[in-house]
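COMPLEX REQUEST
Ligand: NAP
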Amino acid sequence: MREIVTSITMRTRRPIPTIGLGVYKSEPGPVTKEAVLAALRAGYRHIDTASIYNNEADVGDAIAASGLDRSEVFVTTKLWNDDHGYDNALTAFDRSLEALGLDYVDLYLIHWPVPNLRLDTWRALERLTLDGRIRDIGVSNYMAKHLEEILEHAAVVPAVNQIEMSPYIYRSRLETINLCREQNIVIEAYSPLTKGRKLDDPVLAAVGDQYGKTPAQVLIRWAVDKGFVVLPKSITPQRIVENHDVFDFQLSDADVARLDDLDEGLATGWDPSEVE
Ligand SMILES: NC(=O)c1ccc[n+]([C@@H]2O[C@H](COP(=O)([O-])OP(=O)(O)OC[C@H]3O[C@@H](n4cnc5c(N)ncnc54)[C@H](OP(=O)(O)O)[C@@H]3O)[C@@H](O)[C@H]2O)c1
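STATUS: Structure written out below.
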């Protein structure tokens, strides 16, 4: 049995919990607050929000209501596309921190590689790490070409790249994955459940049956076994528990290979590979 992995060490030597609750399309207000509280009760210690999700305040409320110490919960938020550019980015971060009601965020990401402006934005994020209100900075939806640009020009290498990731797109993203691995950039798998689209794939059921696990748990465990941080979203208490219950089994190498074979280049959201 390989070691149970519940956190990954980033290049900055800080740990990032392996499973985070995603709150994209989690309705602002009590729905998000209750989902985050349910996750924290189930053992999650990592929440992934974004300014565009319009629920940062509910994430902050839930953390405050949970009784957990702030230091026990890893919080990520993201800078939206309208907020690129050096000065805009500084202001956008202030707004997010205020909405969250926190003194700092653990991870702040550029949500999308907006052309022309993204390097200026990154300089602002680098500056924001200096005053202690951000622990780590990273990017999202950066493909290999966007990463090469930032590696060439930036002072700080992103700690994380959050990209769409499931067996249905894994092989199509290998160039980006390999570059992240070379540079010790943690990959965060978003839409790991394919937004629910592939959960009825008989291959997932067949693999899961061998371990007494559901298709969702198979997809989450696949991401864990690949060494990714994984960000399943649910507002349903029983699914929130289910999605975290993946540390008592491990996929065989043969099952990982079988899942890798499912690649069909499936991007359930915007595909960043065309962005200049
Ligand atoms: N950086 C980016 O550009 C980006 C883009 C997309 C997503 N993300 C992040 O990644 C997170 C996850 O991605 P996602 O929200 O696109 O989709 P996802 O996690 O792949 O799928 C979520 C869907 O699956 C359902 N679900 C969850 N657990 C289930 C289970 N055990 N059994 C059956 N159905 C289940 C959820 O329903 P219920 O909620 O109704 O239970 C919801 O409809 C986001 O919330 C966000 O934090 C980031």
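REMARKS: The domain at 14-265 is CATH 3.20.20.100 (TIM Barrel). The first helix runs from residue 30 to 42.
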